[in-house]
Write a structure and sequence with these properties.
Blueprint lengths: L3 H4 L13 H6 L3 H8 L6 E3 L13 E5 L4 E6 L3 E2 L4 E8 L2 E11 L10 E8 L5 E10 L6 H14 L7 E3 L4 E3 L14 E10 L3 E8 L5 H7 L13 E5 L3 E6 L3 E2 L5 E3 L11 E3 L6 E3 L7 E9 L5 E6 L15 E5 L7 E5 L11 E8 L8 E7 L11 E6 L3
Parallel strand pairs: 3-6, 4-6, 14-19, 15-19
Antiparallel strand pairs: 1-23, 2-14, 3-13, 5-12, 6-11, 7-10, 7-12, 8-9, 8-11, 13-17, 16-25, 17-18, 19-24, 20-23, 20-25, 21-22, 21-24
Organism: Chitinophaga eiseniae
Protein name: Copper amine oxidase N-terminal domain-containing protein
Keywords: Signal
Length: 397
């Protein structure tokens, strides 16, 4: 994954509430206002002069919400050996979230087709029953932006399974049976985002092997996971946070001009900490990929303006890895109906300013009373972070 703050110089101003509203309010010309208010939801728009790293940032509080055990496999991101285990972690009865983000990186003795699959073993004394609550799996691809964006959209829209699978004590199965058959060519990414429930203790392994060998067989014969390559991936292990609730400290008033909300920046919002079972080492999840942010914003309009929520890629000029950004979110209703929106929805990625993506326009209440806006965000895989959520007062008249 492209973890901009940990691998390259970052361009943040932090998340403290600062002054300077006037200069940004002055930049909202009639022409820019018309561009924003006439753009379709999820589409890219051109807003020259509006966006920068100096937009005032909202302060907020974070609450750790109850959530599943959270595992991520992204270190090593590129699996360079023909057969190996990229992650091996114990899981306890209850709900589990697994984010699989691994690439066939085999070059020696030659580039070769592989498969990469998640295997779960029943380490308990009774039959295990496993049932998917959320499920997202894309075909192996070199289009990492598509996998990250579509993966989140599919995860948000998926429905729980009604039938559980059974695993006998000591036995294993592929968590995602399609992965046991999918050919992964060199440099292709296997992207899976799963949330499931089990009733026995287990062990999850992410295994790369040849197409003829069942992933369960390969997992059983591999005794230990590969060494980590922390500089090249977000992390691996079991992490202590899977869900946050974000509450903005103060009620936003449109008369005060533009503001932004920054999460997953590694500063105001530090990386979550976990532990890797094979070494016992503590690990930070650089990027907080796979963590869900449930964001709550109180706002009012004492000047009669609406509030546009936009996002953009502030890192487009900083390296070859940061030239694009693509995401998916759930957003509450406003000018557009509540629901899941791919960002952007009219092309694969946004590149850099003056491009921005319109997420929603929240409409003012009669009399300017306080309203609530809600959105669900997760750091988008393959994109450099943070991806600011910018709130722009606009005139709908």
């Amino acid at each position: 994954m492209n973890i901009f703050p940990t691998r390259r110089k970052t361009l943040l101003v932090g998340c403290a509430l600062i002054t300077g509203f006037l200069s940004h309010a002055q930049q909202m010309t009639t022409a820019l206002n018309d561009v924003i208010t006439h753009t379709a939801q999820g589409h890219i728009m051109q807003v020259p002069g509006l966006l920068s790293g100096q937009i005032p940032s909202l302060s907020y509080q974070k609450i750790v919400l109850p959530g599943p055990q959270y595992l991520i496999s992204d270190d090593p991101e590129y699996i360079r050996v023909p057969e190996g285990v990229a992650l091996r972690e114990p899981v306890q009865p209850g709900s589990v979230r697994l984010y699989l983000y691994n690439v066939n990186g085999v070059q020696q003795p030659e580039k070769m087709d592989r498969k990469i699959a998640a295997v779960i073993k029943n380490t308990g004394s009774q039959p295990m029953h496993i049932r998917m609550l959320k499920y997202s799996s894309q075909k192996p691809t070199t289009n990492y932006f598509f996998a990250g964006k579509q993966g989140l959209a599919d995860f948000f829209s998926s429905q729980p399974e009604t039938v559980a699978r059974e695993v006998k004590p000591g036995a294993s199965l592929c968590l995602d049976p399609k992965q046991d058959k999918a050919v992964v060519k060199y440099d292709e990414l296997v992207h899976g985002f799963y949330e499931f429930v089990i009733d026995q203790p287990g062990e999850i392994s992410i295994v790369q092997t040849d197409m003829k060998t069942p992933a369960t067989i390969a997992s059983a014969r591999i005794k230990s996971p590969l060494d980590t390559k922390q500089y090249a991936g977000a992390g691996r292990g079991t992490y202590g946070v899977s869900n946050y609730r974000i509450i903005v400290d103060d009620t936003l008033d449109t008369r005060n001009g533009m503001t932004q909300l920054l999460v997953a920046d590694g500063k105001k919002d530090p990386w979550v900490i976990g532990k890797e079972a094979s070494t016992g080492e503590l690990k930070s999840l650089a990027g907080n990929y796979g963590v869900l942010y449930n964001i709550e914003l109180s706002w009012k309009s004492t000047d009669g303006k609406a509030l546009a929520l936009v996002t953009w890629n502030p890192h487009g000029d900083n390296s070859q890895w940061c030239g694009g950004m693509a995401n998916s979110m759930i957003v509450s209703g406003g000018k557009f109906k509540e629901g899941i929106i791919q960002l952007p929805s009219n092309q694969l990625v946004t590149t850099k300013a003056p491009e921005a993506i319109l997420v929603q326009i929240f409409t003012p209440s009669a009399g300017g009373g306080i309203q609530k806006a809600h959105f669900t965000y997760s750091p988008p895989g393959a994109s450099c972070l943070p991806t600011p959520l910018v709130l722009v007062p606009v005139d709908l008249k």
